[in-house]
Amino acid sequence: MSNYHIKNLEEYFQVYRKSVREPENFWEEIAEEHFVWREKWNKVLEWDFKKPEIKWFEGAKFNITENCLDRFLPMRKDKTAILFEPNDPEVEAEHITYSQLHERVCRMANVLIEGGIEKGDRVCIYLPMIPELAISVLACARIGAIHSVVFAGFSSSALAARINDCDAQCVITSDGSFRGDKVIDLKGIVDQALQECTGVKTVYVVERTGNKIEMENGRDKWLQPLLDEAYADCDAVVMDAEDPLFILYTSGSTGKPKGMVHSCAGYMVYAAYTFKNIFQYKEGDIYWCTADIGWITGHSYIVYGPLLNGATTVMFEGVPSYPDYDRFWQVVEKHKVNQFYTAPTAIRALAKEKLEYVEKYDLTSLKVLGTVGEPINEEAWHWYNNNVGKGKSPIVDTWWQTETGGIMISPIPYVTPTTPTYATLPFIGVQPALMDDEGNEIKGNQVSGKLCIKFPWPSMARTIWGDHERFRNTYFDVFENKYFTGDGALRDGVGYYRITGRVDDVIIVSGHNLGTAPIEDSINEHPAVAESAVVGFPHEIKGNALYGFVILKETGESRDRENLRKEINLQIAEQIGPIAKLQKIQFVPGLPKTRSGKIMRRILRKIASNDAENLGDISTLLNPEIVEDIKAEVL
Ligand code: WT7
Predict the structure, then answer these.
(1) What distance in Å separates the CA atoms of residue 290 and residue 446, rounded to the nearest whole number?
(2) Going by CA atoms, what residue is nearest to atom 14 of ligand 1?
């Protein structure tokens, strides 16, 4: 039996037990048998959650791109690595083989080297979902530069903050991106961001839309001519196991985004192993994850996980609704997709449309369906199961986080059972714990608590870029000797996990992780605003939407309320991005606060959710009378 590919329930239990009893032996075996190393490690694992310090495979030397590309050249050079499906269905799809991808990554790596980028330098990638995005990511990894991909829906200020936080000296972008039938001026956003970023020396520009843009002399360079001139081969830089591979920003409960740092070896091993098993990928399968590479899902399960397994991974530039609501299913039929991985918010949006959109297509190629990013509600689960999977494709509800690098709790299709709304069982090597508020682990079944992980897994984040103290505070200080996820969970009678949602100030909107603090900071910058509080409330399609309670300064009283709402949302869109816009804005005379001045969000959440009947004890509030005033004008 190979522990790399788990094929039945008995194997799952057997391998899981081994991974918990002898984690080092277990992971060493996986690492040894399924990857290529220049030099082996001295020690499999060293860890201390107090510091915290986590090291996997220390002493090992290798390069992740040799594992994604070079090792497959003898056997799979003509196999499609990336299957690019453009925004416009009339434009032909592009099949990039393993050898072509190898060459394009090498050329890009040589362009970066020529531009002075060295091992350890940070490169910011701000691109739409086009092949150059994956190629840039891999080119950085090839030369040991740390990639920091910023989702191309983020605004110029959000981009600038991320560039400055990690001191990126180079940005890779494009002249524009397609969004349905619109063109977004990405380069203009970069130009604006760079007014605040003095450290950026070079901007490489991919020509994608033909949009007219400004090129700044000496700083901006069209990429294609440089690629054409570059050598088609590039030796991979030999990396240490714990060298950083990438930084990816995620929201936190203060205004500043957290640059989660992932390191090379552990991330590689875990991304590859989870991909193989959770999608039951078999040679020849066509795999499609609809996420954007700007999120962790795209890093681990569009680029690294699939390529590390020599798979064919679909990269989709478009959106589910353009030119019409059948686009996903059209692509599934066209490319005979076998594994399809998407977000509950997309499923809910498509479930609202006519069934014809799905029924028109032959979806019999599908073997595995997946969801990620937020809890999936029962109704959406059944719609997905009945209409897309026709009751024949198991749905893997995969729970994980930017911080975890890979999937942590999920069914394994055809191996372990699935249950609607449950992420079910911990993946191999993952040791979850539910905690009570006193800091004790809650044992047994049919219990709920705060979800922690009590033993390191290879792909866990190692630090927050430039702020190790915040890393410790946020994740390792809340419960002793445990990684705290920020989520609540329930463990049912048979030991299956169901994620119940965030227990902190993070709100998941359409699967995007948004911190309340940066949104409030942005609202408060409006000259008419004195103070604000943002909470989530249930939304049919987005899962959650944002509700803002805003106190105006006196000068704001006489102003047009509708206009103010527009201005506030415009400001949020400019400073963070359109995904952070508020669904509802209620102007209030005050906010419920504790005696220590902390806003009681619990109360605001109930009011926003139209569930203000039972607010519990509000006597500890500094200003209990304000609650009635707010309730009276709820939107
Ligand atoms: C948060 C992490 C993991 C990639 C995308 C999101 C929520 C994620 C599930 C799921 C219920 C989920 C959690 C988590 N979440 N997957 N299957 N069921 N909730 O990554 O932006 O770092 O967000 O997303 O609340 O903590 P992220």
Answers:
(1) 34
(2) 401
DSSP 257: P
> Under CATH, which number does the domain 507-632 receive?
3.30.300.30
Which CATH superfamily groups domain 1-56+258-277+430-504? Luciferase; Domain 3 (2.30.38.10)
Higher pLDDT, 268 or 616: 268
Q: Which residues line ligand 1 (CB under 6 A)?
A: 250, 295-297, 372-375, 397-402, 423, 485-487, 499, 502, 508, 513
Task: Give the separation between CA 140 and CA 13, rounded to whole angstroms.
Answer: 38
The model's pLDDT over 127-138, given as tens digits with 9 standing for 90+, comes to 999 999 999 999
- The sign of the torsion formed by the CA atoms of 443, 253, 502, 295 equals negative
Express each pLDDT in 74-113 by its tens digit. 999 999 999 999 999 999 999 999 999 999 999 999 999 9
Q: Which atom of ligand 1 is nearest to the CA of 403?
A: 22
* DSSP bridge pairs for 54: 47
- Asked if residue 592 lies in contact with residue 557, where contact means CB atoms within 8 angstroms, the answer is no
Half-sphere exposure in the Cβ direction for 401 (13 Å, CA): 27
β 182-184/584-587 pair status: unpaired
pTM confidence score: 0.91
Domain parsing of the chain, residue ranges = 1-56+258-277+430-504, 507-632
Q: What average pLDDT score do residues 333-361 get?
A: 95
From the CB of residue 613, how many other CB atoms can be counted at a distance below 10 Å? 7
Q: Give start and end residues of each alpha helix (H) in 35-71.
A: 64-68
Atom of ligand 1 at shortest distance to CA of 409?
17
CA dist 221 and 273 (Å) reads: 38
Average pLDDT, the chain: 95
